[in-house]
Design goal:
The chain contains ten helices and 13 strands. The protein is an alpha+beta fold. α7 crosses α8.
């Protein structure tokens, strides 16, 4: 009788296990999930049918880790490996998250894959990484289409803003430039005709200086007008603002570079306007991405730390790329309104970025001696 009950119990357990496995299979199928198990010690990746479908692998064989990685897009390998290295750090929680492209070697088709999992440790050493993947290519294509539409709308808006701004500046600068021209003609006429009345010449040159300063004041007043309005600030974690700006840039299709972060931990809170500082960071990251397009291995380094300036502690942010950099002439003019190194740029991004940082009590500048690439730095006040 006991043997019969045990047999029935075993059958019940087997049936419950079968039902549970079937439910798991159906849930996995409905979610379109692929499952992988990376045996770190043996350097082997076990994967299910869905994973093999993502990778374009028809056979059911296990593969080495190198074979597995070989199908990942070359531009995405470094960032993915960085995520794995972080998860394999015994000091962390072992969580793994990554997003990358997989290239089908048979037809060259690309899939966007999002992966998440956990590293398991044995005697303080990473033993295996188990996780799931999902194909997000369709979502990426939709995002790209929406971003293209947003870019087109933004481009039209920028053209309208540029046209109106140029019109306003032309109106403000017309009179002082005309006066400068007139004073210069008087001075040149006197020099060419050897009629060097020193008082007359001094008045003409003083007039040039006065009108040039007037033009400069008009331009700065216009920039202030464009940025006018009460600035609402709050206590913020600067490192979180950096991460948010990087996510914005990646979602906008400007993430084709490897990022190295040197973010000082336990940094005091800063007092600033989140949106405005994000705009500055996004503009610097986009500029860096565009500058590094011709570099084989584009790398962006972003740092945050406490810096003492004028005997006051402030937060310092450093954004450095490994692009071609700027020659001395460009470096001197890079913050001038309407000066641009881009064929389609309007030259207002860095001028406005500097104004935004100054509005938040900081300062933005370019390190002219940095090599390679360009190195921008800005400061922000700590919250009191």
């Amino acid at each position: 009788m006991v043997a019969f009950n045990v047999a029935n119990w075993n059958l019940d357990v087997e049936e419950a296990l079968r039902v549970s496995e079937e439910r798991l299979r159906l849930a996995k199928q409905a979610a379109g999930l692929g499952i992988f198990d990376y045996d770190i010690k043996r350097n082997i990746v076990y994967w299910d049918q869905q994973m093999r479908k993502f990778w374009g692998e028809p056979s059911e064989r296990t593969v080495s880790y190198e074979e597995f990685v070989a199908r990942i897009h070359p531009e995405d390998r470094a960032a993915r490996q960085e995520a794995i290295d972080c998860a394999m750090n015994p000091a962390g929680n072992g969580e793994y998250r990554a997003e990358y492209r997989v290239v089908n070697t048979a037809n060259g088709a690309e899939r966007w894959i999002t992966a998440m999992g956990r590293v398991y440790f044995e005697a303080g050493q990473a033993n295996r990484l188990v996780g799931v993947t999902r194909d997000v290519t369709e979502q990426k294509n939709i995002q790209k289409k929406l971003q293209t539409q947003r870019d087109e709308a933004e481009s039209i808006l920028k053209q309208q803003v540029a046209a109106r701004t140029a019109s306003a500046i032309a109106h403000e600068l017309n009179q002082p430039l005309t006066a400068i021209s007139a004073y210069s003609e008087v001075a040149l006429h006197a020099i060419h005709n050897d009629d060097l009345d020193s008082d007359h010449l001094i008045r003409a040159l003083e007039g040039c200086v006065e009108q040039a300063q007037r033009a400069g004041r008009s331009l700065h007043e216009l920039l202030d007008f464009l940025q006018k309005g009460e600035v609402v600030t709050e206590r913020l974690n600067l490192n979180e603002v950096v991460h948010d700006a990087l996510n914005i840039v990646r979602n906008d299709g400007h993430g084709g570079f490897h990022v190295t972060l040197h973010l000082q931990q336990n940094l005091p809170a800063i007092q600033c306007n989140r949106t405005q500082v994000q705009k500055v960071l996004v503009n610097l990251f986009r500029n860096a991405d565009e500058a590094m397009r011709a570099v084989d291995l584009p790398a962006l380094t972003v740092s945050t730390k406490v810096q003492t300036m004028n005997e006051i502690n402030v937060a310092l942010v450093i954004v450095q790329d490994n692009g071609p950099g700027l020659d001395p002439v460009m470096a001197k003019r890079i913050f001038e309104p309407f000066f641009t190194t881009k064929p389609t740029g309007i030259g207002m991004g860095l001028a406005i970025s500097r104004t935004l940082i100054e509005t938040n009590g900081g300062y933005l500048w370019l390190d002219p001696d940095s090599r390679p690439g360009a190195k921008f730095q800005f400061t922000l006040r700590f919250a009191s």
